[in-house]
Amino acid sequence: MSETTRPSLLLPRYSAGQRLNHWITAITFLLLTFSGLALFHPSLFWFTQFFGGGTWTRILHPYIGVVMFVSFSLLALQFWRHNLLSRNDVQWLRQIRDVVQNHEERLPEVDRYNAGQKLLFWVMIVTIPTLLITGVVIWRPWFASYFAIDTVRIAALAHAICAFVMISGIIVHIYAALWVKGTIGAMVRGTVTRAWAAKHHPGWYRRVIRGEDH
Amino acid sequence: MALQSLDILRRSATTTPTPQQRQTTEVAKLIDVTKCIGCKACQSACQEWNDLREEIGINEGSYQNPHDLTANSWTLMRFAETEQNGTLEWLIRKDGCMHCADPGCLKACPSPGAIVQYSNGIVDFHEEHCIGCGYCIAGCPFDIPRLSKKDSKVYKCTLCSDRVAVGLEPACIKACPTQALVFGSKEDMIEHANDRITDLKERGFENAGLYDPSGVGGTHVMYVLHHADQPQLYNDLPKDPTISPVVSVWKGIMKPLATAAMALTALAGFFHYVTVGPNEAEGDDEEHSA
Hints:
The complex is a heterodimer of chains A (214) and B (290). Chain A has 214 residues and is mainly alpha-helical. Helix content of chain A is 64%, strand content 3%. Chain B has eight helices and eleven strands.
């Protein structure tokens, strides 16, 4: 890569379609989180006001859930290959203290995604389909009456556990995007700076510079 | 149904004390199954007082009609045939809400005030606050609440809370021709039941007993059973009903812990930012200005 022929300082990371797909998932996630938490803990019941009251919250939540499942499935189909865990990832996770202390130079080389991002991806792969299945089982008035009461009870608990894991994971995801400067732009404008790529995703950076596949 | 608003012992999805200044006498309905003749006068009286009408159904070879509790039928005579002590026995049980001291429906309900428990023991649904989620159905150990197809609200026996509030007995009690149904203070009803049980034992029903299951803290609808050792004979009346442990975890310990954990995760992020600080790629500025 010669300095003189550099066409652009910014590297493309996400296409417009991928950004759109991500933000549809993100918006439906927020709607689901607020409507779901409203029905989970009484102190958060006032979140139902965002949805037009308790009954509307109950009516809308499952439909939004189906939209998120479809949207997330499209994301997962595009990104799963980049999220396969490697030997470096295990080492990265062992050095989680260096990660949170911003000692990135001590970490093994990261490719397109680091181990934390990959782990989050697989947490979503497990929780989102489970949320869909358990959500259908407790969906009234349409489906819940077709299942045995014990099945409905287990589904309700599993739904709450998966939602808790997913929400906690996404809080970390959102924080990481705010913490690692220059990350938001990847998903808003679709581009990152060379310095960002070289520091946080050196493996990916080298491949992009060489003109290889993203 | 909000007539007794000052006597509320428990209120669904509410974490602060309810208006419970007054303490009213704990009431109970006693259903003496051994005296019931299955006439269904109680079913009719329930529909009449509560202005409900059940759809005309079809005969499936049993006196039981309708076949199950519905949003319109809050009480139902359940008929069972069984052989006990070498003879056929026709067991008829008036099914409906048991008005548990520890109500699973109320524990599961996410809508503040949609389910209340009065200090007299009656558990009541306030349908205007019901959001139709059906969590109460999962919470109930007796399979009682029914979701209406008409309005997606749940309905069940109110123990005629509107009548009891003004000193009347429930409509079903008033209609019973054999005094199989009696109503009064829970204390008096237990005493009355004990007399009946002594009588039944003398007449050969050695397992006669009172059904007031402690697993749900006792109930405000109790049964006198000839076979108290086998409540399941009476159309699967549960032997040791309790709120399902799954529901207890979901609506008990998990609720505050998971909520706190999510809040703390977000807080931990903020504290990380103000202590360790952001992770910036050096050279960003040069690249931009280059």
